[in-house]
Amino acid sequence: MEIFNTIITTQSYLAPFKKNNKTIGFVPTMGALHQGHLALVKQAKAENDIVVVSIFVNPIQFNNKEDLLKYPRTFETDASLLEAEGCDVIFYPDESQMYPEPDQSVYDFGLLDKVMEGKFRPGHFNGVAIVVKKLFDIVLPDKAYFGEKDYQQLQIIKALVEHKNIPVTIIPCPIYREDDGLAMSSRNMRLTAEERKVAPFIYQTLLQAKDKSNQLNPNELTHWVIQQIEENSMLTLEYFEIVDAATLLPVINFNDCQSSIGCIAVFLGDVRLIDNILLE
Ligand code: PAF
Questions:
Q1: How far is the C-alpha of 238 from the C-alpha of 202, rounded, in Å?
Q2: Rounded to an integer, what distance in angstroms lies between the CA atom of residue 153 and that of residue 140?
Q3: How much of the chain exceeds pLDDT 70, in percent?
Q4: Residue 280 has what pLDDT?
Q5: What is the mean pLDDT of residues 112-139?
Q6: Is-catalytic flag, 37?
Q7: Distance 202 CA to ligand 1 centre (A)
Q8: Mean pLDDT, range 243-248, rounded to an integer
Q9: Is residue 58 lining ligand 1, measured as CB closer than 6 Å?
Q10: Mean pLDDT across the chain
Q11: Mind listing the domains of the chain with CATH numbers?
Q12: CA 232 centroid distance within chain
């Protein structure tokens, strides 16, 4: 496995693969890897000739300084996990490589980046779009793998690829969960033991909501979920919204769209967790 810190060394290494029509699978990450990331690497490995993983904690997608400072950085462990998974290249740049000067690009994804995460984390998706576009330009992947836990991010990246005509296929991968249902996230390692015990309640509530989606309308179901979360004194709800899975527009009647998804963001202590469930 190769580890490169610069754009030029990464590009020089990958160029002959491109030239010989070898396919490049790419998994962009911010490190602090868990089984969910490794599942993306495994799938990328099965579907491509060579797999590149980037590890870069992208400062411009953090609208909260504290969150950026506390974001776990575990490069040594990440590198050994990736090596064991058969990753071929780690691209591990520092900020001066990625942003020799500030990138002022402004993306407009219409409604996609205004709702849910976009409402609560201003500038977040613009920062994601900037870094993902840069990473795609460096790695020139044939396929790029993204987890469905960050469902809104996935829709925005699909839109980015379409708007900018980037020749990459975006592969969505299912949410990877702990045995008790908690969606895997790099942030989970910041939960205290007590918070960790409470965390599965989020997914349990989503599962119950799915069950109830044939008895309640979206508005009633939203209120039911809000009430469940608010009754748990350790959780602070940021949002729960039922939206069209393709457009992210709010769903008024379940029959009005092909598939709907319930998306949630919750604080557990000072750790912000997101999750979602397809309601159909
Ligand atoms: O999902 C993430 O880890 C990040 O948002 C990404 C896509 C690597 C961009 O920094």
A1: 12
A2: 20
A3: 100
A4: 76
A5: 97
A6: yes
A7: 22
A8: 96
A9: yes
A10: 97
A11: 2-173 (3.40.50.620), 186-278 (3.30.1300.10)
A12: 26
